[in-house]
Inverse folding.
């Protein structure tokens, strides 16, 4: 099994390391487009940052910037490439060129893409939908490292800042950890954690001043809200996706 993880070239000081979150729920900040924002997210305690390789998205990131972000992050903060309906060859090329730690498949990719990526030693997060395709009921067909669950039905792939009935995601996976996404912000994330009991949460628009522009004050407030949430992890799975 090959290891395609790039070693960071620099490691800025971090306020928090792995395991320092009292709630036990990990945080992925998605849609980073600037190196300085990614480093600030890491400094504030994020476990992972998402880099969107989907051109129609306002959060689309070019390869050069993605590579610089991946190389600059401290080792314990994961870089996750987000792809929509891309073939294995394209995704694998970005992993190798940019040094991604994991990939998130956010479209209707066939299960074989998951198989091929995992055979190359790549950690794969597969997005499943409560009200979309592929549905959460097809999780067994996708042998991913973890799943991301959101409602679906928006204009673009992704949460589209739409809150939904988060408790619908509780207890639907027994053998893999899952990430909760869609409409999360600092005001509702504690309630969402209590309702869905996820292993991690994913936020993008909920910490932005405008599409693609992260607001660091909102990022910090969101991370504080997650840290202050009651510990609600299911316990049946190891729970740590980014480790």
């Amino acid at each position: 099994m090959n290891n395609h993880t790039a070693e960071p070239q620099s490691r800025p000081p971090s306020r928090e390391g792995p395991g320092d979150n009292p709630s036990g729920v990990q945080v992925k900040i998605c849609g980073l487009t600037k190196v300085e924002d990614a480093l600030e997210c890491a400094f504030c305690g994020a476990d992972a940052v998402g880099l969107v390789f989907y051109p129609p998205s306002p959060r689309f990131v070019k390869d050069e910037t993605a590579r610089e972000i991946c190389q600059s992050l401290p080792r314990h903060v994961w870089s996750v490439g987000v792809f929509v309906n891309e073939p294995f060859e394209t995704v694998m090329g970005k992993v190798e060129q940019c040094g991604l730690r994991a990939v998130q498949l956010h479209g209707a990719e066939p299960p074989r893409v998951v198989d091929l990526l995992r055979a190359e030693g790549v950690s794969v997060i597969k997005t499943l939908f409560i009200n979309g395709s592929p549905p959460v009921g097809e999780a067994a067909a996708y042998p991913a490292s973890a799943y991301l669950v959101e409602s679906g039905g928006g204009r673009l792939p992704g949460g589209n800042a739409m809150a939904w009935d988060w408790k619908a995601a509780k207890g639907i996976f027994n053998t893999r950890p899952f990430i909760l996404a869609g409409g999360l912000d600092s005001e509702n994330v504690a309630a969402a954690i209590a309702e869905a009991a996820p292993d991690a949460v994913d936020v993008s628009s909920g910490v932005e001043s405008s599409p693609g522009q992260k607001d660091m004050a909102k990022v910090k407030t969101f991370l504080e809200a997650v840290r202050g949430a009651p510990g609600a992890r299911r316990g049946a799975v190891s729970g740590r996706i980014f480790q």
Observations:
- DSSP finds six helices and ten strands in the chain.
- The beta strands are 26-30, 48-52, 78-83, 102-105, 123-129, 146-150, 178-181, 200-203, 208-210, 213-214.
- The helical segments are 35-44, 63-72, 88-98, 111-119, 189-196, 216-228.
